[in-house]
Design brief:
seven-stranded mixed beta sheet; alpha+beta; elongated
Length: about 800
């Protein structure tokens, strides 16, 4: 959603720099994604007047327009069909940068030197209209900067809002948050609606056959309207919000929707077809033509607005062609309603038609804000079109929706947040959000119906947190207070895993928990799947039972876009069915995947990423968390290459899998380079984390020794290391493999593993004889257990 910052300033009285307002709103959960100057394409664009227009030649549609800019008269070659003498226009001078990064400079066109450009609305960034040049009002002062004349000294703020915040789909909703952040009152629009003597109820009646789908429907009638163009202040607000102005009546409904968040619809009353509004479900096979020119086949999932005989609008989505407001319209039937969000969502998906109205109804509008919205729109229509508003609202509201009353404990709030916010400050925040508060100690908070997302005390606590400022809340996981829970430990653990892996050069991916059943069956054919009853698409029809689904999908996508060198990790949940009747269990896991090569630079040549990049990352995690060391046990696993497929074991317990993805799987994913992947179960490792212990730095020197051990090709290097550690005992400070050799010098079926052993004693300097004796014990054990030969180094 886009809004003018000046509009927000009108509603709050604030004069913060726009960057400050955007940052404060974003930090409180009303995410401002972008701020751009409204006049960003109006530098060196001024008001000019066309003095004459001449065709350049008979075969071209180009014309030479002479334009007075006050200080001089410029030639402009123009191909717009609507250019004419006497018009006030927007003129881009040499050096102007128009939309699309088009820089204006004198250019020879059709044999004529064009030294300026007469602009369309799109070229100046006002709208997407490029059908002709922008024609200004007759009072536009020649030579004035266009931005100053149009009052475009403003900023357009783009918001990305969460699905639960329907109240934020409006200028008032966002201004309410801004006012609460600044502790100033919200300035709602003030108006005095004048009504005619005749009553609305004498001209229209309202009936709903589906009070669940349409709990409230209100109508007004405005007569003697004159449909025409809206004043610039209305057009400006609409254009800055990305909505094209149409006429004063239609523009008012859009303006009030943007202002209040409540969609409205205006019908041509004389073409409505009856004096009765009936809200009902569609019949099977019923057809209806919407404003976009499409004819739809309907069914009972669609909620309709009808005249008692035939449809006139799809409720909450779009109006019909036959009753739209036209230039000849003189009487308007104005609608404001509240529809069940689920019904509107179903209708929109069924018709494959979305609109500004459906977006708001799906998020949930305020059922008790209808009277203000329809009165505001009626006032503006009367003001801008000269119409007469008939007296009263015909309001069908059989079961009133009441505000929620929630008990709120300030002490509990401070305990959860780890703060010391005074009770009075909490009351101030609630009042700023237009919540009613009563009581002392424990408070009774009445939550208005424009916030249906707030249902429990914890929701109110979140409101305190976001308005007070998340940055003002201490990190609860670092101080184990009275509300510390094991969940905090999981958060700290996950954060530390991320820190270690990003430090090791891995990038995090975040999956949504869904997967494709076909791919999952290929990866883990023996694992049962949790299927979704109402899947988004065939690509996401199950809850994933392995992180490999997400990792391989991400790799396939990146490789397809020529991003070939990847080190990825994800911390997430998988969903494993317990049995046929019970639900599923959720396991937290870590996936690590590598493919491609290391990054090259002027010192280091690139090398292929492989199995050891994964095992090295696991070793780093093991060292950081002081886990027992991982070991890898060869075992065939469905989606791994049979020559590189291992179970991960930690502390004699299964901890995951690691290996090279099979060529068949990669072929189906259209990946033509090796991929290595590990998946580790984190729940057991979290419990294995050991407390930090410290020891003094070594006082005595180390005695390093190297061994080149020739063994059979089937001997595991990990078994050799374990044997050396067991034999040398506490004197072996470290045992590290640093080379592997196979070849003619040692013969077929064998391999040579080079191991560096560092001996050290904490009690004194070890003599050469002691070190040699330990080394001989190690050699003897290796020969005995593995039939090893020791090569000369």
């Amino acid at each position: 959603m886009k809004l003018s910052y000046e509009w927000l300033k009108e509603l709050t009285g604030l004069d913060w720099p726009v960057e400050v307002a955007a940052q404060r709103l974003t930090l409180c959960g009303t995410n401002c994604e972008e701020v751009v100057p409204a006049a960003r394409f109006m530098d060196r664009v001024i008001v000019g007047q066309v003095t004459e227009v001449q065709p350049i030649n008979e075969t071209s549609n180009l014309q030479l327009a002479r334009v007075n800019i006050g200080s001089e008269i410029l030639d402009s070659v123009c191909g717009a069909p609507n250019v004419a003498g006497g018009q006030k226009v927007a003129v881009a001078l040499a050096g102007a940068m128009l939309e699309g990064d088009v820089e204006i400079e004198p250019t020879l066109v059709g044999g004529v030197m064009s030294s300026a450009v007469i602009c369309s609305e799109r070229e100046t960034g006002i709208s997407s209209d490029h059908s002709g040049i922008m024609i200004l009002d007759d009072d536009a002062p020649v030579g004035a900067p266009l931005a100053a004349y149009l009052d475009f000294d403003d900023f357009i703020m783009s918001f990305e809002l969460t699905p639960n915040r329907g109240d934020s789909m409006s200028a008032i909703g966002i201004a309410r948050d801004l006012a609460a952040l600044a502790s100033v009152p919200l300035r709602r629009p003030q108006f005095q609606l004048k009504e005619a003597v005749q009553k609305t109820v004498e001209f229209i009646s309202v009936r709903t056959e589906d009070p669940d789908g349409c709990p409230r429907y209100a109508a007004r009638v405005i007569r003697s309207v004159r449909v025409g163009s809206s004043p610039w202040w209305v057009k400006k607000k609409l254009l800055m919000s990305g909505i094209r102005p149409i006429s004063n009546v239609v523009d008012v409904t859009n303006l009030v929707m943007l202002e209040t968040g409540h969609p409205l619809h205006a019908f041509d009353f004389d073409r409505f077809g009856s004096r009765e509004v009936v809200v009902r479900r569609a019949y099977n096979g019923e057809t209806f033509a919407t404003l976009d020119g499409r004819t739809h086949n309907l069914d009972p999932t669609i909620l309709l607005i009808t005249n008692g005989r035939q449809p006139v609008a799809v409720a909450g989505v779009m109006g019909g062609l036959d009753s739209e407001v036209q230039e000849a319209t003189t009487a308007v039937l104005l609608e404001a309603a509240y529809f069940d969000p689920a019904v509107i969502r179903g209708g929109r998906k069924r018709l494959e038609t979305a609109s500004e109205s459906s977006q708001r109804f799906e998020k949930g509008v305020d059922p008790n804000g209808i009277s203000f919205a329809i009165d505001r729109a009626a006032y503006l229509i009367a003001d801008l079109s000269g119409g007469d508003v008939l007296s009263g609202i015909v309001d069908c509201y059989p079961r009133r929706i009441e505000p929620a009353n929630i008990r709120f404990r300030p002490e509990r709030c401070n305990l959860i947040l780890g703060t010391h916010i005074p009770d009075e400050r909490m009351k101030q925040i609630f009042h700023g959000l237009e919540f009613s508060v009563s009581g002392a100690g424990e408070l009774d908070v009445t939550v208005p119906t424009f916030r249906p997302d707030i249902k429990r005390e914890i929701d109110l606590i979140e409101e305190i947190a976001r308005i007070e400022g998340y940055d003002a809340i201490p990190d609860a996981v670092t101080s184990k207070g009275p509300l510390y829970t094991p969940r905090h430990a999981v958060d700290v653990f996950s954060r530390n895993v991320r820190r270690v892996l990003t430090g090791a050069g891995f990038d995090e991916i975040v999956g949504h928990g869904l997967a494709q059943s076909r791919l999952s069956s290929q990866l883990n054919p023996d694992l049962r799947q949790v299927r979704l009853l109402d899947s988004v698409s065939d690509e996401f029809d199950i809850a994933r039972n392995s992180l490999a689904d997400t990792a391989l999908t991400a790799i396939s996508h990146n490789v397809a876009h020529r991003n070939l060198d990847l080190c990825l990790f994800e911390i997430g949940k998988v969903y494993i069915p317990a049995n046929e009747h019970d639900g599923c269990r959720e396991d937290m896991r870590l996936s690590l995947s590598v493919t491609g090569s290391t990054v090259s630079n002027w010192r280091d040549k690139p090398r292929a990423l492989d199995f050891y990049d994964l095992s090295g990352a696991l070793e780093q995690l093991s060292d950081h968390f002081r886990w027992p060391r991982f070991s890898f046990v060869g075992q065939p696993i469905s989606f791994y290459d049979e020559d590189c497929s291992f179970r991960i074991v930690n502390n004699d317990r299964p901890a995951g899998v690691i290996g090279k993805i099979s060529a068949d799987i990669l072929r189906k994913l259209d990946v033509k380079q090796p991929v290595y992947l590990a998946e580790v179960e984190l729940d057991g490792l979290l419990a294995s984390e050991r407390a930090v212990t410290f020891q003094s730095l070594p006082q005595y020197p180390a005695a390093p020794r190297d061994l080149a051990i020739v063994v059979g090709a089937d001997v595991l290097a990990g078994d050799l290391v374990a044997s050396i550690r067991r034999t040398a005992g506490e004197w072996a400070e470290s045992v590290r493999i640093f080379d592997l050799y196979t070849g003619e010098q040692i013969g077929p079926g064998k391999k040579s593993i080079a191991v560096s052993v560092v001996y050290r004693s904490s009690e004194g300097t070890m003599s050469s004889e002691q070190v040699d004796h330990l080394q001989q014990q190690v050699i003897s054990t290796l020969k005995q257990e593995f039939n090893a030969d020791i090569r000369d180094k």
